[in-house]
Design brief:
Layout lengths: L2 H12 L14 E11 H10 L3 H4 L3 H4 L3 E5 L4 E6 L5 H5 L6 E11 L5 E12 L12
Parallel strand pairs: 3-5
Antiparallel strand pairs: 1-2, 1-4, 2-3, 4-5
Length: about 140
């Protein structure tokens, strides 16, 4: 058997499938604790390949395009909207901070797996400053 064909079969078999039935439906309430704010491309890599290093290794250049929140426990991507959501606030958490929020689903994109949430409660913990943990040990 051709080795390229075997490699293709292995890649297709090991790729995670996005299950549209697992996406929250519009109107459902979601509650996320310790979500990671990152670029959409990095969050998609983390979800599809299981590479959580992509979340903290994502730079500001990529995050300039589109910031989403990745819930590691549920492996779900969220785009936040609403009066409480400010881009500068989400940018402060990119690269190591965390985002906690509660809100209602307004839309779920079955193709990309991104769920749009109208946020009613939001708490953002900014990424630590360089050297913040010096002297802890």
């Amino acid at each position: 058997m051709n080795t390229a064909l075997i490699a293709l079969q292995f890649a297709l078999a090991s790729a995670p499938l996005l299950n549209p039935a697992s996406l929250p439906r519009p109107g459902e309430e979601v509650d996320v604790t310790a979500g990671a704010a990152t670029a959409l491309s990095c969050a998609t890599t983390a979800r599809d390949q299981g590479d959580l290093g992509a979340l903290t290794g994502c730079g500001y250049a990529e995050a300039q395009q589109d910031i989403v929140v990745y819930d590691v426990a549920e492996q779900q991507l969220y785009r936040l909207t609403g009066k409480l959501v400010f881009r500068w606030l989400l940018e402060s958490a990119v690269g190591g901070g965390s985002v906690d929020f509660v809100g209602k689903v307004t839309k779920a994109d079955r193709k990309t797996g991104v769920v749009v949430v109208d946020v009613s409660e939001l708490n953002v913990t900014p990424r630590p400053k360089p050297g913040a943990f010096k002297g802890c040990l």
